Automatic annotation (TrEMBL):
Organism of this sequence: Treponema pedis str. T A4
Residue ranges the record marks as coiled coil: none
Classification via PANTHER family: RNA POLYMERASE SIGMA FACTOR RPO, RNA POLYMERASE SIGMA FACTOR SIGD, CHLOROPLASTIC
Protein name as annotated: Sigma-70 family RNA polymerase sigma factor
GO BP terms: DNA-templated transcription initiation
Domain of life from the UniProt record: Bacteria
InterPro entries for this protein: RNA_pol_sigma-70_dom, RNA_pol_sigma70, RNA_pol_sigma70_r1_2, RNA_pol_sigma70_r2, RNA_pol_sigma70_r4, RNA_pol_sigma_r2, RNA_pol_sigma_r3/r4-like, Sigma-70_RNA_pol_init_factors
GO molecular function, a single term: DNA binding
Domain RNA polymerase sigma-70: 66-79
Pfam families linked: Sigma70_r1_2, Sigma70_r2, Sigma70_r4
The entry's keywords: DNA-binding, Sigma factor, Transcription, Transcription regulation
Length: 276
């Protein structure tokens, strides 16, 4: 389907004749005076230029079609700005605007996290200068040398290097060779979890109903050990031991005794298992 659309577009673009240098100047001048027909002719006669350039950027016809659309935007900008004073052919002038449109499109689609266009430009420039330097000198340039080559500070060079080296990891990426676990499984989530909150609420409700079988000390220890103290903080055996002037082991024994009492209450058994 895409192939057919592209072929038809190329066929249609070839219907428009190429222009001479003189015709380009005449049409550009007329366009600036508000002649839309002249403006349109200047653009349509150069559609083949955009197609030719788009094919150099990608072999994928779907991408080529996207690039053609973006490149045509650059072509329109060039047609609006072109002037006889530039002393160049329109195609030579339009190439820059078309390339800029291609770059903006590719930059915005290559990265999951979009960067400012200037950052992308500097990253490409730095990589190109680094490759040239290595070819000419046999070694990679230092940050100081790179900063001079791209006319940026050393701190900017370091920042650009970090951006180039940064990798985006998918949450679905496997973290074990067997592929049974992924990043999503091991990264903690601190956001509100309504299911967990519902379970905790049900547990507290059932537990409070059964607290009648416990002594006041046992109630206090259970509440503080399970974070039911109003501050959702689970206190240690040692901390509670210091509060009651007994050892941490004594607090642990009191907790075990209290839990045995609670487990005789059928309503709380399942809640305790889930919460623990």
């Amino acid at each position: 389907m895409v192939d057919d659309v592209l072929l038809q577009y190329i066929k249609d673009a070839k219907k428009y004749p190429l222009l001479t240098a003189e015709e380009e100047i005449v049409l550009a001048d007329a366009a600036k005076k508000g002649d839309y027909a002249a403006f349109e002719k200047l653009i349509t006669s150069n559609l083949r230029l955009v197609i030719k350039m788009a094919k150099r950027y990608s072999k994928n016809n779907s991408v080529v079609m996207e690039l053609i659309q973006e490149g045509n935007i650059g072509l329109i900008k060039a047609a609006k700005k072109f002037s006889k004073a530039f002393n160049v052919r329109f195609s030579s002038y339009a190439v820059w605007w078309i390339k800029q449109s291609f770059s903006r499109y590719l930059n915005s689609h290559e990265r999951i996290i979009k960067l400012p266009v200037r950052k992308e430009f500097l990253m490409r420039q730095m990589k190109n200068e680094e490759e040239k330097y290595e070819i000419n000198h046999g070694i990679k340039p230092s940050d100081e040398e790179l900063s001079k080559l791209i006319n940026e500070s050393e701190s900017s060079v370091m920042q650009l290097k970090n951006l180039i080296a940064r990798d985006i990891c998918s949450l679905d990426a496997p973290v074990q060779e067997d592929g049974n676990s992924c990043m999503y499984d091991i990264i903690a989530c601190n956001t509100y979890n309504p299911e967990e909150e519902a379970i905790n609420k049900e547990f507290r409700l059932q537990l409070n109903k059964c607290m009648g079988v416990l002594t006041d000390r046992e109630k206090d220890i259970i509440k503080n050990r399970y974070g039911l103290n109003g501050i959702n903080e689970k206190l240690s055996f040692a901390f509670l031991g210091s509060r009651y002037s007994v050892s941490a082991e004594s607090i642990r024994q009191i907790q075990l005794k209290a839990l045995r009492k609670l487990r005789t209450q059928k309503n709380v058994i399942r809640s305790m298992a889930v919460y623990q």
